[in-house]
């Protein structure tokens, strides 16, 4: 059985009890590190990560899914982790984003709406010799290669 698939099933079982938390990613690294990334509509706490870790770890051991030694790590994505899911975009409405497009260009703007097909941002367009203007743009998700939240220390 595929380890990542089974871990995903186990995490989803536990998340049925935690409706404000959602799975972002499961990755088994060659060095034996099993990473489970979860996020929440209002963030995710240590107690939630611990509960998920206990549930997954118990069942992996019980079923002997992983034959080699492994290290299970359950955490939330870091502040610099790219957004992957619509639910992550929705959670970050009102924040500034850095967006890498599939044509290699970069865009920045304030996220004002998010859906399954596209996001909407307010971006400042500067043209030489003219006053900068704020424009609302709709960007289809399929044209985005990476989106990160810009952190402001102001």
TrEMBL record:
Q: Which domain of life is it from?
A: Bacteria
Domain named Ribosome maturation factor RimP C-terminal is located at 83-153
Its keywords, alphabetically, are: Cytoplasm, Ribosome biogenesis
Q: Which GO terms describe its biological process?
A: ribosomal small subunit assembly; translation
Task: Cite a GO CC annotation.
Answer: cytosol
Summarizing the function annotation, the protein's role is: Required for maturation of 30S ribosomal subunits.
Q: Which family does it belong to?
A: Belongs to the RimP family.
| HAMAP family xrefs | RimP (MF_01077)
Q: What is this protein called in UniProt?
A: Ribosome maturation factor RimP
Organism encoding this protein: Mucilaginibacter achroorhodeus
